[in-house]
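=== RUN LOG ===
request id: a7f3
mode: sequence -> structure
chains: 1
length: 116
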Amino acid sequence: MNRFPWQDGLITMVGLWLFISPVILGYGAQDAVALDAVSWNFILSGLAVVTISVLTLFWYRSWEKWADILIGVWLASTMNFADMVSARLNAVVMAIIIVATALWMISDGRRPFHTS
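=== RESULT ===
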């Protein structure tokens, strides 16, 4: 029996939120062509997190959690330049969730899929 840890599910949901948050929270223009750098940062970071989560389903490697950590650090560090308080808060909170969850899974030392 294979199992998908809830931590991977949480990271996936955070990635999906990052992907859609510019539209939901109204960052940048409503036109996709005119999205600003803050919006693209959220969209691309979310897409990267979701892609890594999907890869974990089929092909687990320890570097995937380290990649999540790098994305979280990137997201938090680039939002220092955002003019919008809501964008900074969103980025920092989501980055903390990603980094903390990935570190938890790394420190747990277990592979995410167990065959019984």
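=== NOTES ===
The chain is about 70% helix and 0% strand.
The mean pLDDT is 81.
=== END ===
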